[in-house]
Specification:
By secondary structure, the protein is mainly alpha-helical. It has 18 helices and eight strands. It has helices at 8-20, 29-49, 91-96, 100-115, 119-140, 151-158, 169-176, 191-199, 222-266, 284-329, 339-357, 382-395, 452-472, 480-491, 498-511, 522-531, 536-542, 547-561; strands at 57-58, 61-62, 188-190, 401-404, 407-410, 414-418, 426-429, 442-446. The strands form three sheets. It has a four-stranded mixed β-sheet with strand order 3-6-8-7, sandwiched between helices. Strands 1-2 form a two-stranded antiparallel sheet. Strand 1 and strand 2 (61-62) form a beta hairpin. The chain is elongated and about 115 Å long. It starts with 7 loop residues before the first helix and ends with a helix.
């Protein structure tokens, strides 16, 4: 691509925009490399020292760990020192170089768009840039697994920043200080990390209704992808058996404590006054303990049998894990899926981006000050999104839980942060159809919405609805959360998208009802109170504020007493 022959008017505009932006003082390349290496080494030492008790990381993805019960507090939202990548005067040129026809077409359209004065023509160019930019990203996608890919190309996919001069100096500084690596140990990923994880086989491609491409997974790393899939399924067995094993060990400990207490009470004999040193026989209460202890031993025998079964399952799964790890270590990490599979995932991501914007929304994929109106705390950076998810879970503690054998398993979904100007998050998959027990679902959240909290709420509400619907299966219109809500809509003859009604009500439930402001219909409030319960402390507080909440609180007591809750 002959950049020297670019349109002169565009070059003038480009130079003017660059000169108007605040740039950092240039430094010697050797100094930059040295300081970067020192920072990387210090960060590595800090991570090693603080890794205890945290989930294992597979690349930038944490493995499912059922022992983690909540999000860790975010200690740092931005770096102290900004990244120098956006101050590189050849950022734009490096970003487009080597990407073939797609970059040439994108460059030509961007030149016309930036120089165009007619509004109608500009709208046409803007629509054409949408298609051209996604073609450019499709060309970039297979290269994301390479450790040597330039930062400017990663940032183009991660934030949509193709031309830094389209951002204000303040915006450039904000993005320059964003934290690059996933130090949160949460499955919240930027788009470049998502594609890299797919390419390396750390994560399965997103499910679609399209037929799989034949031969797409026959590349040199196909064995690595197969092993990773087996490890994923086996990880679910390990987590489940260990969770059940812990529950049975806790139950055994409780029973043993009861046996010990009764045995100690059984050995206490009062002295017979006047007949010393003889002591009194067993009392009636002590004689009753014989049958109690016998029943406890029977319960212990039953628990021990179940514990032994879970222990065998756990040992078997751990043995399989060791075997798979040994085989995986023999394989050098490489791109493990075919190019067609990676491009198919890019098509899926484009559909996700469209869904965050809606039919009438702004689907322009390039970052520009013209459309960006967020501040640093409410831009969809990883740390900000985790903060919002943490707030949601504090009010809806079961939002990420699935129940198995009456034991709740907390599984945070994969969360994709897509650089779009949309306002709505959504759920793409509630869970893996081949591993419903311990697999992560997939939600998508736009990075540049008008309100980040609402974008996160819509995604979690969609996840809530889809998980409940899958759980109820064929009875989703008559059973559980979805059944009761559907019947409410039918009784009130409300027409429209049922899930959208639910999402809107869920937002009111979390933002208004949780504060004691009654905005929902009485029937909906009762449904949500039962199936989307607040924490017990919040319920205790709400019952004091209104008779409506006090009545719902009393229903909880009645259901618990009748074992029907």
């Amino acid at each position: 691509m002959a950049y020297e022959d670019d349109d002169q008017s565009f070059e003038a505009l480009f130079s003017q925009a660059e000169s108007n932006s605040t740039a950092y003082e240039p430094q010697d390349v050797t100094d930059l490399m040295s300081s970067s290496s020192n920072r990387d080494f210090s960060r590595f030492v800090e991570e090693q020292e603080s890794s205890a008790g945290k989930p294992k990381m597979l690349g930038c993805i944490p493995e499912v760990d059922l022992n983690i019960k909540e999000f860790r507090p975010i200690e740092k939202y931005f770096n102290d020192e900004p990244n120098q990548v956006y101050d590189d005067p050849s950022y734009y040129k490096k970003c487009l170089t080597g990407e073939g026809q797609s970059s040439q077409r994108l460059h030509g359209l961007l030149v016309k768009y930036l120089n165009c004065q007619d509004k109608k023509d500009k709208t046409v160019y803007r629509q054409q840039i949408v298609t051209a930019y996604w073609e450019f990203l499709r060309t970039l996608a297979p290269k994301m697994a390479s450790a040597g890919i330039p930062d400017c190309k990663r940032m183009a996919m991660r934030f949509g920043i193709l031309l830094p001069s389209l951002a204000t100096p303040e915006q450039k500084t904000m993005f320059a200080k964003s934290i690059d690596r996933n130090n949160t140990y949460e499955p919240v990923l930027y788009m470049d990390e998502w594609i890299k994880s797919i390419a390396l086989g750390h994560m399965k491609p997103s499910a679609t209704d399209e037929a799989p491409v034949k031969g797409a997974n026959k590349g040199p790393g196909a064995e690595q992808a197969r092993l990773q899939q087996l490890k994923s399924k086996n990880s679910g067995k390990i987590q489940t058996s260990e969770s059940l094993l812990n529950a049975k060990e806790s139950e055994r400990q409780t029973l043993e404590a009861q046996v010990k207490n009764r045995m100690e009470e059984l050995f206490v004999h009062e002295p017979l006054i006047g007949f010393e040193p003889h002591k009194a026989p067993y009392t009636d209460l002590q004689r009753k303990m014989f049958s109690d202890i016998t029943n406890l031993f029977r319960s212990l025998q039953k628990v021990d049998k179940e514990l032994s079964n879970y222990l065998n399952e756990f040992k078997e799964a751990k043995g399989i894990e060791d075997s798979l790890n040994a085989k995986s270590n023999e394989i050098v990490e490489e791109v493990s899926v075919g190019k067609e599979e990676i491009l198919g995932e890019m098509n899926t991501l484009r559909q996700m981006q469209k869904m965050t914007c809606g039919r009438q929304g702004n689907q322009f994929p390039v970052f520009t000050r013209e459309f960006f109106h967020c501040i640093d705390k409410f831009t969809g950076f990883r740390e900000n999104v985790i903060r919002e998810l943490q707030w949601i879970e504090s009010i809806d503690p079961q939002c990420f839980c699935r129940i198995h054998k009456n034991i709740p398993h907390r599984i945070v979904p994969y969360t994709l942060l897509v650089p779009s100007y949309g306002d709505s998050g959504f759920c793409w998959e509630p869970f893996d159809r081949f591993n419903r027990l311990s697999s992560r679902g997939r939600i998508c959240i736009p990075m540049y919405p008008r309100d980040l909290k609402t974008a996160c709420l819509t995604a979690v509400a969609d996840l809530r609805w889809q998980v409940a619907k899958e759980k109820a299966s064929f009875d989703w219109m008559s059973d559980g959360l979805t059944g009761h809500y559907y019947q409410y809509l039918e009784e009130h003859k409300m027409k429209g998208d049922i899930k959208q009604f639910f999402i809107d009500d869920y937002i009111l439930w979390m933002t208004k009802e949780a504060n004691g402001t009654q905005k929902l219909d009485k029937e909906v409030r009762a449904i949500f109170w039962r199936y989307l319960p607040f924490p017990q402390e919040l319920k205790e507080e709400l019952k004091k504020r209104s008779l409506a909440y006090a009545e719902l609180f009393q229903r909880d007591i009645n259901r618990s007493m009748s074992d029907g809750y």
